[in-house]
Each structure stands twice: as C-alpha cells, then as structure tokens.
Amino acid sequence: MIDISKKCWHKSLLFGSLYFSEGLQLTLTTVIVPIYLLDQGISMPIATLVAGVTAAPWYLKFVFAPIVDYFYSLGKKIFIIIGGLLGAIGLFLIMVLHPSTSLLLFSLFLFLSHLGIVFVDVSCDGWAIYISKENERGKINGAMTAGLFAGMTFSTLVLSSIAEIYGYNLCFFTGAIIILVIIVVSLLIHEEKMLKRAQKISSILKAEFKKATTQLVALYCSVHGINFGLLIFAIPLYLKTILHLNVGQIGLVMSIYPITLVFGSLFGGVLADKWGVKKILFVFMSVSLVFSAALIFAHTWEAVGILYGIIGFLQGGGLYAAGGALLMNVSNRKIGTTQYSIFASIGNFSEFGLGAISGSLVVLLGFSRVFLYSAWSLGPPLLILYFIKLKKLKKGNNAK
Hints:
With 400 residues, this protein is mainly alpha-helical.
C-alpha cells in the first residue's frame, strides 16, 4: 500500500486523478448527452431538462455524504470504489437504449451514473479534508480542479471525436472503461481511517451552522455557481444552433475552457495559499464578470473560444481552487464529508438547477440576454464574500 499522508503532491496526485474521472463523466452527461439528444430529435428544452434533472445527485450531495461519515470506520476508499462502479455501469446501460423511444429509462440510467460519481466526489472531498493541512489546501484544490477539467478536456476532445467518427455508443463505452481503471488504481492507496468520533454528526453539524461565518459561506454557495451553470449548458447550444457546428467541432471549441481552467486552478491554488482565499476570489471573480458580459459580442466560434477560455482560467483560479479551499477551511474535519457536501450541494443546485432550464431561458430570452445575466450573477457572491470573516492562518495549522 502507498502512504500519501506525508507529502502534499502525493495527495494532489490521488485526488486529482479521482477528479479526472468526475470531469470525464460530467462532460459526457452535460455536454455530449444534450447534443446526442438533439441529434435524436429531442427538443432543446427537453434535452437540457434531462441533463439538468438527472444531475440532481450533485445538488443533493448532502443526502449521500452523511452515509460516508456515518460509516466512518469503513473509511472513504470503499465508497469511492462502489461509486466508481455505479458511475461506469450507468454509462454502459445508456448505450443499449434509444432516447427517442426510452427517454425515461435513459434518464434513469443517466441519473445512476451521476449518483455513483457523486459518491466518488463526496468521499474524495472528505478524505482530502481529513488528511490535509490548511496551508496546503489551495494547492490540493488546485490539483483537484485541474484533474476535474483535464477530464473534461479529454472528454470534449477525444470522446466527442469518438462520438462523431464511431458513434455515441463507443463514446459512452470508452468513458466507462476509463472511470473503472482510475477507480481500481485507488485500491493501491493506504487509508488512515477515523477510529472514533466523540459526538454525533447532527450535534456537530448544528453547532457549525450556528456560526455566522458558516451561514455566510452557505449563502455565498447559493449564488456563486450561477455563472458557471448557465454558460456550461448555453454555450454548446449556441455553437450547435447559431454557429451550426457539429459535435466534433463543438468538442474542440469547448475543450479550450477546461484547458485554461486547469492552468487557472493551479495558478490560483498557489496564490490562495500565499495571499489568502478571499483576495484571490475577489480578483478572479471580478474580472470574470467582465469577460462573461463580453460574450454578447461573440459572433464567431473563434471569439467564443477565446472568451470562454479566459473565463475558464478565471473560474479555475477563483471559483474552484480558492473557492474550494474556502469551503475546506470552514468545514470541521470530524464531519468534513457532510459539511463540505452541504456547501457543495447548495452550489451545485445553483449550477445544475439553472442549467436544467437554460434551454427554456434561451428560447424565452435569447442567447445574448442569458450571457449578460450570467455576468450579472457574479455580483451577489462578491458582495457576500466581503462580509465573510476568516481566521488568520497559523503556521502548522491542521484545520479543526
């Protein structure tokens, strides 16, 4: 067994690879699947509704995370294995269904895939909180974000090309196999399990959420992902319906975003550990607001690619690396899986909840207004962030 507890880069490598599998599955289900449904004759509002609703486990993470914390003696790794298997099985099952005739069953298996990957996600987060020091969480979150969007890049570049050349079934099959390989590798890692917990999860959780800082962070989470949620669904649809690109071409353009986000997350993670998460969030989110608004002037795929790439870099360093470190720093490590998942669930609801109706919003308002509103949505989280008070980092601090 490999011990990763002593070196930051060992932790970063493990959690980054697990997040790679998450990014791969997320792009399959939020970018490639909606385009697949459009190609099968499903309307735009229904396609985005299916993609958004089946992603419900991502904004219901608080329901599943307590299961991991409750069975703390089993550790986190077992849930990563089970979740990875479910995620892959769900992708295998949608291969055998035709959505135009079995849309409900197709959606159910898509939901199963999301559910499995969510268990991977919450277990990975809890494990990272438990074994990481506060002064390395920016780097670890940067690596996790880099892994997530490296997986998205691979999916948009390689899997979308497979879908275009060889068909969607081989695309889903390839994604499932890669997830299984990554999950199996985690079996080689030694896990230090929590031997006992002095208090019940509920009592610790109540005490945490009575704190003003925790409440403000939860409020921040409720609005910080709206920008991401609107754009990740709207931009592929814009490329498909307005600029008339095929799935392979859309994959190439969309790959620019996760590539730049990887670099942004690594850069932002280092800066967050050095200068503090709040400062980095303020700077990156403010600039992202400007470039999100500029999408209304993007009338070619080149312009969309450049602007979305810049937004990706800024969201990587701000929303993901610094933002993830903020949530970890506020979470109590005794119930890290549960508390972090509550924050993440609130954020994911704002992302996928609006993403689910993005098709309808485009039909009602048009792409330009949706892009403009996505920029405006960054104002409230910036205001809330101003009032969040964080304790100053002490040397050698290992969280709560």
